[in-house]
From TrEMBL:
Identification of the protein by name: CLUMA_CG012116, isoform A
Any GO CC annotation of this UniProt entry: ciliary rootlet
PANTHER family linked to this entry: COILED-COIL DOMAIN-CONTAINING PROTEIN 151, OUTER DYNEIN ARM-DOCKING COMPLEX SUBUNIT 3
TM spans (from-to): none
Keyword Membrane: no
Signal sequence, start to end: none
Region Disordered, annotated ranges: 560-583
Length: 611
């Protein structure tokens, strides 16, 4: 009785261990199936990505070689460049999405490769994590198996069921475990099939994309071929029209020649018939007229010398018969005089001769027309060849004109770029002038009373500040304003005679001293380095005195230029140490600097906006 609760606790622990072992087995099987599926997917993706990367590398190599040849074409690789250009025309490489040229396409492909490498690294990391997790599960599984074996070693190997119900439960548990195992196996198989289906689907999608790209290429090639076919059909239609036109012209000419030949043949046949009829009539009349005479001639040799009377009688009979025949002929022809009958016979002979002459002339004319026909056919062939040659010449001229147009366009673009650069330079100069005018506004405010007392009552060119800041002002006005401001500054410093500077005697003395020092420095600087600012305001090869406000600026520029040249810095430094300004000059300069700073605070916004 005491061992009963211990046995129950052992059974409960064993059941829990069995459940844990079953769960761990199931997890291990699932993880192994997932691992196999992931490995298969990874192999497929890896193959696909490696193929893509190899294709991209090949394309990048081809493009880089083309770029090298295009940037550095030499005599040795000109042929290769031409071959590459022909290959590029034959095989147009499709650019990726979002790329306008091959450089952008290469950049996009590099980014895609980087993304794929990142995905690959993430996938590797996931696989490593899963492998580590599987190893942990295996360790736990081995630990539990060892624990179970230890428990089984301590307990009995097999404990028979105590009751029928326990036996039924054990059988039910084993049957359910078997069914669970079958379901797990089926589940793993289904997962494996699903993974395979996904792999097949991805491969089919990639094939569909590849086929779609090939279809697009084929459609583009078909369109080009269709355009060429349309052009050739148009040329063929033109050739057919020309052939039909030439056939019509030749048929008309042939019909005209045939009709003229038939008319001549009919006329010749009519003339022959008339000649034969007249000839037959003449022969018949000759036979009738000269039949007795011939008989008389033939009978003379056979006549006897003793029968002279009979001959006379026969001659008379023949004469009478001939006269009768002649009269019949005259009555048949409708002629009364014998001379007219003779003339009629002579006219018939002339008509026969004329007919033979006409026949010969018509035969010669027929031969001439046949030769002319052959010449015209030869000329037609020559014209056809010349038309083709003219078309080729016109094509060459059109190509030359197109080349000239392209050269003019290139020249126009170059000139536009140069004009744009010059405009930028002019705009920068104008901006610098405007900045100088804005900086010189301080002089206008300090010398307002001097501007009121200008010589001859001249009006100053006052331009509103917004126009100056926005730049809506001509360069001539800016130059005039600068000249006026320099003139006013010179008047304020007393460097122009005839006008009071409007300052006290002490200030004038201080300004004269500073001007004298500026003159000395400018003369020495002119001997060493010619400053562009001094050269602009030089009159009669003498340095022009500047206003007191800009004396320090000019001295600073001159010292900077002189110190830049070797061997001249020591003299200038000694002269600056020798020229010590007075107290009034220093006070006035300090006041001017303070006023300028205070005014700049109020004008800071437009100046920065201009920049």
């Amino acid at each position: 009785m005491e061992n009963a609760p211990a046995i129950k606790t052992n059974e409960a622990n064993l059941e829990e261990l069995n459940k844990k072992i079953v769960e761990i087995k199931r997890k291990i099987v699932l993880k192994e199936g997932q691992k196999k599926a992931n490995v298969e997917e990874w192999d497929v993706d890896k193959k696909h990505f490696t193929e893509k990367i190899n294709d991209f590398k090949k394309e990048i190599k081809i493009l880089t070689s083309k770029l090298k040849f295009l940037h550095n074409p030499t005599k040795q690789n000109q042929k290769q460049v031409q071959q590459d250009s022909t290959l590029q025309q034959q095989k147009k490489i499709p650019l990726p999405k979002g790329a306008k040229n091959y450089d952008e396409g290469v950049h996009i492909i590099d980014l895609q490769i980087i993304d794929l490498k990142k995905q690959n690294d993430l996938f590797h990391a996931k696989i490593l994590k899963k492998q580590q997790y599987c190893e942990k599960l295996k360790l736990e599984f081995h630990k539990l198996i060892n624990y179970k074996n230890e428990k089984n070693a301590t307990a009995t190997s097999y404990r028979p069921p105590e009751t029928m119900e326990e036996d039924r439960n054990r059988k039910l548990i084993t049957r359910l475990e078997n069914e669970i195992h079958k379901m797990e196996v089926q589940w793993n198989e289904a997962e494996h099939i699903r993974k395979k289906y996904h792999c097949i689907k991805n491969s089919l999608m990639s094939d569909s994309e590849r086929f779609e790209s090939t279809l697009l290429k084929m459609e583009a090639a078909i369109k080009e071929q269709q355009q060429e076919i349309n052009k050739l059909q148009a040329v063929y239609q033109e050739a057919l029209q020309m052939r039909d036109a030439t056939k019509g012209i030749l048929s008309k000419q042939e019909q005209a020649t045939n009709s003229s030949n038939r008319a001549r043949e009919r006329q010749a046949a009519e003339f022959r018939r008339q000649v034969e009829n007249r000839k037959a009539e003449l022969e018949r009349l000759e036979r009738k007229i000269f039949a007795t005479g011939t008989k008389i001639i033939h009978q003379e040799s056979a006549a006897s010398s003793g029968k002279i009377d009979d001959e006379d009688t026969s001659i008379r009979d023949n004469k009478t018969t001939m006269e009768g025949n002649f009269k019949k002929l005259m009555t048949a022809t409708g002629i009364t005089a014998s001379n007219e009958l003779v003339d009629r016979f002579l006219a018939q002979r002339e008509a026969s001769a004329r007919l033979t002459y006409l026949r010969n002339v018509t035969e010669h004319e027929k031969k001439r027309l046949e030769s002319q026909r052959e010449q015209m056919t030869q000329q037609l062939d020559v014209f056809k060849f010349s038309d083709n040659r003219e078309n080729e010449v016109n094509q060459e001229e059109l190509e030359k004109v197109k080349k000239d147009i392209d050269e003019e366009k290139k020249r126009k673009t170059i000139l536009e770029e140069e004009a744009h650069r010059t405009n930028i330079v002019l705009q920068s100069i104008k901006d610098a002038l405007v900045e100088m005018v804005l900086k010189l506004q301080e002089v206008d405010e300090m010398t307002a009373d001097i501007q009121a007392r200008r010589v001859g009552g001249e009006k100053a060119t006052n331009v509103p500040l917004p126009d100056l800041v926005s730049g809506n002002i001509s360069t001539e006005k800016i130059v005039k304003m600068l000249e006026e401001k320099v003139k006013v500054g010179m008047i304020a410093s007393g460097q122009l005679e005839g006008i009071d500077s409007g300052l006290s005697d002490d200030e004038e003395e201080a300004e004269t001293k500073s001007i004298v020092s500026v003159k000395k420095e400018s003369i020495e600087g002119k001997e060493r380095v010619k400053s562009p600012s001094i050269r602009n305001f030089a009159i009669d090869e003498k340095p022009t005195p500047y206003p007191q406000v800009y004396s320090s600026l000019i001295t600073g520029r001159s010292t900077g230029l002189v110190s830049a040249s070797p061997g001249a810095g020591g003299g200038v430094g000694s002269e600056e140490e020798a020229d010590v300004p007075s107290r009034s000059f220093l006070k006035r300069q300090a006041n001017l600097i303070l006023d300028a700073k205070s005014r700049r605070k109020f004008r800071q916004a437009p100046a920065t906006r201009r920049k």
